[in-house]
Design a protein that fits this description.
By secondary structure, this protein is of the alpha/beta class. It contains 7 helices and 14 strands. The strands form 3 sheets. A 6-stranded mixed beta sheet has the order 1-2-3-4-5-6, with helices on one face. It has a 6-stranded mixed beta sheet with strand order 7-8-9-10-13-14. It has a two-stranded antiparallel sheet with strand order 11-12. The chain is globular and about 45 Å long.
């Protein structure tokens, strides 16, 4: 049996996928993209009997960070984000919250970069900087567990928008093609919105694979 248990919640006004990754052996738990409703996330953590160890942000848009500060304070844990994403996280205009809802910002305790290998909650995690949706978008790859948390970079047979602040269509093409080239085909892809997928499926059906 894998040490990894993944449970998901769909939260917020644009139905963001929030992931809770528990290490079955240690009980430690990682929170990926806490979109909204910190009380609901906390209840789910309690149901899983998890012990939060860190928050991983794939990017800084409001619909992925809405519960970040509340959960960081509640559990006393660090927040990880890619080093180019600081301005998006800290600027309500760039993270879109100023125009959609009440302004929200977040700060990372640890800014990571492409190629970093993290050890959190007993997992080995490889950081992929995947600009395109935002300048500091990133993906978190768990090689032993064959799992990729792709945020709004890679979707099922699709990819994230590139017309928002700091986005780039050219960067998105390069980022998606790199993931499809470098990540093994059997890897499960946990996306930022909608249904999950696999690298094998995306190599066959993603429009940027061609």
């Amino acid at each position: 049996m894998s040490e990894m248990e993944v449970q998901s919640m769909v939260l917020g006004m644009v139905r963001t996928n929030v992931y809770l990754i528990k290490n079955r052996e240690t009980g430690e738990l990682l929170i990926v993209d806490p979109a909204d409703s910190p009380d609901r996330i906390s209840r789910k953590i309690g149901e899983m009997a998890g012990r939060p160890a860190a928050i991983l942000l794939t990017h800084g848009h409001f619909d992925h960070i809405g519960a970040c500060e509340a959960l960081r304070t509640k559990y006393g844990i660090g927040v990880y984000a890619e080093e180019h994403e600081r301005e998006v996280l800290e600027n309500s205009s760039e993270n879109l919250s100023a125009s959609w809802d009440a302004p929200v910002t977040a700060e990372a305790d640890h800014y990571v970069k492409d190629g970093d290998v993290l050890t959190l909650a007993g997992f080995e995690i490889h950081v992929y900087h995947t600009p395109g949706h935002t300048v500091g978008s990133c993906c978190y790859y768990f090689p032993k567990e064959k799992a990729l948390f792709s945020g709004d970079t890679l979707f099922c047979e699709s990819y994230g928008r590139t017309d928002l602040p700091t986005g780039s269509g050219r960067d998105m093409e390069e980022s998606v093609r790199r993931l499809l080239r470098e990540i093994p085909p059997e890897t499960a892809v946990y996306t930022g919105h909608e249904m999950f997928t696999t690298i094998a499926r995306e190599r066959k059906y993603n429009p940027l694979a061609r």
